[in-house]
Amino acid sequence: MASRQALQPLFLLLAVFFIKLVMVESIRTPFNMTKAENSDKYHVEKPELVVQMVERSLNNSKRKLSSCETGNPIDDCWRCDPNWVNNRKRLADCAIGFGKNAIGGKNGRFYIVTDPNDDDPVNPRPGTLRHAVIQTEPLWIIFQKDMVIQLKEELIMNSYKTIDGRGANVHIANGACITIQYVTNIIIHGVHIHDCKPAGNTNVRSSPTHYGFRTKSDGDGISIFGSSAIWVDHCSLSSCADGLIDAIMGSTAITISNSFFTHHDKVMLLGHSDAYTEDVKMQVTVAFNHFGEGLVQRMPKVCRHGYFHVVNNDYTHWEMYAIGGSANPTINSQGNRFLAPDYRFHKEVTKHQDSTEGNWRSVGDLMLNGAFFTASGAKESSSYAKASSMAARPSSIVGSITASSGVLTCRKGSSC
Q: Cis omega (within 30 of 0) on the bond before 300?
């Protein structure tokens, strides 16, 4: 029989393994809510009603155009205000679509990021972005000056946070990027996110009282994992190691709007896998974005199981296809402008990935240079009977709605 002294190193290794296992599981547990609450609370039983709300917002903006309004209902809600600096939180009332209820840090204090460094992901210094996003209280995070933030490890966000880059030129780049995991009520607005790289296999703090071991990340620009009530608006994203925005593992109640996507292969992943049926609750609005130069596919792609409203986006570049899906998704494409590439075998907007195709509809889309959309599913499904009433939009409307996509130049004392 082995001696007690000989077994001690084995006991020590087992103890270390158990501690790391507990820490990993803990860091993947949501703060202040269960996983079921995180998704079910924001799930909409009749998604076509949300689509109708988007349509009403568009129609109302078109009717009341003024000298600074564009017909973009999100922008027209706040951009005309020259005193936006003192009314920053008005933004939280301007979302539309499935992420409409994301309030971010609206009910919290302002936190000013003064330090672009990320020297210690376990013990971040006050004044850094990492120190801000891990706090348990709601925070509206703004930036003192222009800065490039090169993250050593994933930026693991806590619930009820707004990252608001208006008034500064803020880049999260050349390192790890943003992880939104098992949390809720996040707004990310007005930041450049690019050249994101894999990181991990080390400890990272996720709250003031907890840090844990993180396995290797994929290198996404924004990774949304098991989270809800998320709004990404007026961001510029490009050139990341994996996806620019990925939303998986039951994430729902998401709006991605007014953003500018360039120079990337697999742009946007919505849905974990065909076998992960929890994504049937996924509901995502993709609105008023510009999918631009150097893009290949997934705008979005792999829309699995859930309901995806793709409305008034400008697709000026793709190399393979624009919108893909599998596992019975509902893809409701309305009022987009699709400019196909010159290569004759890549004119199709859509990519159906399996024989079980779900419901795919194109209503009022503008097809240019031979672009075409392959519809599928019941011709008059109950969802589309209510949700497809928006009239076709001419290219001039889509162009004006998406003209200011990406990060805005906002200066104190004048409208953005």
A: yes
Beta strands in 292-329 (DSSP E): 295-297, 303-304, 307-311, 314-315, 323-326
Measured in degrees and rounded to the nearest 5, phi and psi for residue 15 equal -65, -45
Give the pLDDT confidence of 261-314 residue by residue, as tens digits: 987 566 788 875 566 566 678 899 999 999 977 665 444 555 556 888 999 999
pTM for the predicted model, two decimal places: 0.84
Q: Is 298 annotated as catalytic?
A: yes
What is the torsion angle, in degrees rounded to the nearest 10, for the CA atoms of residue 243, residue 176, residue 193 and residue 94? 90
Q: Which residues, 6 or more positions from 324, have their beta carbon under 8 angstroms from its beta carbon? A: 297, 298, 300, 301, 302, 303, 350, 351, 352, 353
Reference 131, options 149, 104, 107, 106; nearest CA is 149
* d(C-alpha 86, C-alpha 33), whole Å: 32
Residue among 269, 184, 171, 168 nearest 218 (CA): 269
Residue in the block written with tokens 């007005």:
190
**What is the C-alpha to C-alpha distance for residues 306 and 329, in angstroms, rounded to an integer?**
5
Judge contact between 366 and 393, C-beta under 8 A: yes
Identify the active-site residue in 205, 298, 304, 393.
Answer: 298
Residue 43 tokens read as 């799930």
Q: What is the Cα–Cα distance from 158 to 13, expressed in whole angstroms?
A: 32
* Cβ(224)–Cβ(201) below 8 Å: no
Alpha-carbon gap, residue 380 to 91, rounded angstroms: 37
How crowded is residue 109: how many other Cβ atoms within 10 Å of its Cβ?
9
> How far is it, in rounded angstroms, from Cα 251 to Cα 224?
7
